[in-house]
Amino acid sequence: MLPEETIAAIAAELAEADRAHGVIPRITARYPEATVEDSYAIQGVWRDSQIAAGRRLVGRKIGLTSKAMQQATGITEPDYGVMFDDTVYESGAEIPVDHFSNVRIEVELAFVLKTPLEGPDCTLEDALAAIDYAVPALEVLNSHIELEGRTIVDTISDNAAYGAMVLGTVHKRPDEIDLRWVPGVLSRNGEIEETGVAAGVLGHPATGVAWLANKFHQHGARLEAGEIILAGSFTRPMWVSRGDEVLCDYGPMGTIACRFV
């Protein structure tokens, strides 16, 4: 493990990068001995500092759950981060580009829990039983660490590159629809850029929720009722810039639109 003072210093560096919308050098380039557990410790110190500053935690994001995303990043296992109340937008929102260091979009489903969920032996069936409803979501990725050469240690430390999420309006219980076959057709300024289906996330999008519950158990925690779980992308990330209009069609689960200003 990295020394506690080093972990605290990196967390402070990331907090300043978040405040200034900047990017810092790779952690693994400076501390090649850093481990995955170090990176979750860094994320935890950063998270606690944000809560102490008045931000409210509303859920968790799971990243790198599909082959498309793992191939796009060169990282081969999932990760997770936290989501705060001031990062949640509704469909139709205008989203300021200046709030981020860089902006990429992913197509996902989010799940709202009706009961707590914990490991160590959580299954897909357990996760589905704990889910109140699914809702379409776009994730805004925002990396505070230079992109080239990142490893999972860098991404976890950087709150799994989470920036914001845009939620749709159609809610479906898990027994109302076969979630595996929810489509996503992602367009930028009227041009289709990415397509996929939710089965691209570990075979079923709620599999990631079970993975997260089991991972949380390793860290002595559980998922709580009311939390939003952003379950992972089933497309590659799409870069966006100021002025871009984004639309994603989820078929039976409606559409999400947003504009970057």
Automatic annotation (TrEMBL):
Instruction: List the SUPFAM superfamilies hit by this protein, alphabetically.
Output: FAH
A molecular function (GO) term: 2-hydroxyhexa-2,4-dienoate hydratase activity
Identify the keywords attached in UniProt to this record, alphabetized: Lyase
Name the record gives this protein = 2-hydroxyhexa-2,4-dienoate hydratase
Q: Which organism is it from?
A: Microbacterium oxydans
- Name the Enzyme Commission number(s) assigned to this protein: 4.2.1.132
InterPro entries this protein is in?
Fumarylacetoacetase-like_C (IPR011234), Fumarylacetoacetase_C_sf (IPR036663), Hydratase-Decarb/MhpD_sf (IPR050772)
Q: Which Pfam families match?
A: FAA_hydrolase
One cellular component term (GO) for this entry is: cytoplasm
This protein's record includes keyword Lyase = yes
Q: Which residues form the Fumarylacetoacetase-like C-terminal domain?
A: 76-260
Class of the enzyme per the UniProt entry, highest EC level = lyase
